[in-house]
Amino acid sequence: MNIAPHPNDLRPIIEADRRHVWHHMLQHKPLETNDPRIIVEGKGLKVWDAAGREYLDALSGGVWTVNVGYGRTSIADAVRDQLVKLNYFAQSAGSIPGSLFAQKLLEKMPGLSRVYFNNSGSEANEKVFKMVRQIAERHNGGKKWKILCRERDYHGTTIGTLAASGQLQRAAMYGPYPDGFVMVPHCLEYRKQWDVENYGERAADAIEEVILREGPDTIGLLCLEPVTAGGGVIVPPEGYWPRVQEICRKYDILLHIDEVVCGLGRTGTWFGYQNFGVQPDFVTMAKGVASGYAAISCTVTTEAVFEKFKDDADPMAHFRDISTFGGCTAGPTAALENMRIIEDEGLLDNCLAMGARLRANLLALKDKHAVIGDVRGLGLFQGAELVKDRATKEPVDEKSVARVIAEAGARGVMIGASNRSIPGLNNTLCLAPALVVSAAEIDAITAAIDGALTAVFG
Ligand code: PLP
């Protein structure tokens, strides 16, 4: 393995970065005095930065993307071969890797039959919103145009997808937003909104209440994450999903599940919704589709939806949309090889086994550290919510969360935290290691968290 070059070799790069690059999601001031982090190389779960430091990455590339791990030469080789043959053609024409990948993907998604290629999760979600608006206009007499979304969920960075996102930290100050995006309550039982036994059903009933308030004939879509990821690792309680499906059918509302994080194995099934026996009308996916080896996202839907855009007599009937780089062949080529790796290496099973180990380790940490109020997650997306007091559930402050992350980093492990979806509530540590993670690596991750919690909270 190549070890990252000595820091001095990269000093000009670091200075160029400091002067010219606008980093995502970071405050600017600290970068005036500290070196920016530059990641140089990766292999498996390990990455090396420009200072030559080695980290175990428990976040799959910072934002839960590199599902099959770093350094996959078979993906690089497949992409190289395809690029030499044909790098691009607009998606009004098909491509060999696009057709093969669509077919293989849909084998894992019974009931769904059409794939629309884009580049990012945001774009994949925007396409659903546009499809729903066009269906409303052409088939529902202008009705059923509103889109229901949930508090604490995130759907993307564009104005439309931010309107659909229930996360203050992402959405504040970028409005005004387009009309017709309506929030339903989140379903996190740890922070109860209803004092009932069957919490899952009750939380789903809250969606029905919003539908009745808005008028069922105004609502065309319900858009939900299968497990809320950055909004605090929220696994809907038992009873939630079946009731959601029932409500959608009752009011003729299309169900869109945003699998941008959970898609391609993150929760131990190909897709997060497959844990819950629910049947969506739209599924969007991005991050793990090609594990970050190429930019690709997909908007997947049913034949019934596809049929609504068919009318040769009307030149406005088809979906009048294009994504230029949806025609890059690197995406589906990398995605096809990514799926082969997940299958051939049994990564769904590894995800379940290692997810269970991670969860057990976190629960053991909860016994030791009073600051852990709740441990929750599915497969290899796990979270630990930090509170000042277990009885009141008052969240720890943001600075303490940042210190825990820094202390874990000082111990060679990269971990992250939830977004500030509700003021004060960015207090959940998030862990999403690659699906290739080993038992020893899981134990190293939780040992670093143990040390970090002791260093910060005693
Ligand atoms: N949907 C979910 C659930 C996400 O977590 C994200 C990004 O984190 C997105 C959509 C947006 O994806 P992208 O950043 O590729 O546009």
UniProtKB/TrEMBL annotation:
SUPFAM superfamilies named in the record: PLP-dependent transferases
Keywords: Aminotransferase, Pyridoxal phosphate, Pyruvate, Transferase
Gene3D superfamilies: Aspartate Aminotransferase, domain 1, Type I PLP-dependent aspartate aminotransferase-like (Major domain)
PROSITE patterns: AA_TRANSFER_CLASS_3
Molecular function via GO: pyridoxal phosphate binding; transaminase activity
Names of required cofactors: pyridoxal 5'-phosphate
CDD domains for this protein: OAT_like
Pfam families per record: Aminotran_3 (PF00202)
Family: Belongs to the class-III pyridoxal-phosphate-dependent aminotransferase family.
Protein name as annotated: Taurine--pyruvate aminotransferase
